[in-house]
Please model this.
Amino acid sequence: MSLTAHFRQHRIYLALVALCVIGAAYFLGNYSKEEIHLFINGIHAPWADAFFPIYTYLGDGIIFPLLLVAALFQKRYFSFSLLIAALLTLVISGVLKQLNKEEPRPIKYFEIIETDLRQIPGVKPHYYRSFPSGHTTAAFAAWGLIALSVAKWPWKIICLIIAVGVAYSRMYLSMHFLRDVTAGALLGTFIAFFASYWAQRLKSEFWSKKWIDLT
Model:
């Protein structure tokens, strides 16, 4: 399958991601990062304080090993695509964070400008390497890859909602600004698309079998 054909096959999902990015770009273009983050920081509830510190792990790096275990029961090319996505996420996100290692996260940024910021009790604060959001990158790479691999649209939508939820959780927890998670969403989607494309090219009998077949 050519790259163009692969893009056409997944154009609707990619368009939905693009709509999310365009929506974020609108706010980024019309409001400062301080205004956006303080608005999000002002929306809170006890249930959300308990929920998002746990939910955010759906974008943690450990999600790839867990999905790789589940992939043992799927066709082998899918586990190959997950491995590609995991490595690209680790390398690209790590390099970008290193290049921006002095970039302050919201907690540190608002401390510098002497503005009060609500913090979630019990959540360990992080102060630097804000750009891009690694959790968001991993979420859009991992769950995006699943979305590109399943056929039924309800599952695709669920995967996208999970990834968007992780992005929001990073802002709710004051770990990242909107621009950080927007960049992470773009990067993660690119990784998912790239990994999916190369995995689809593995058409041999070996890659079309499951590692563990219970049938």
User: Anything to note?
Assistant: The chain has one domain: 3-200. The radius of gyration is 18 Å. The mean pLDDT is 92.
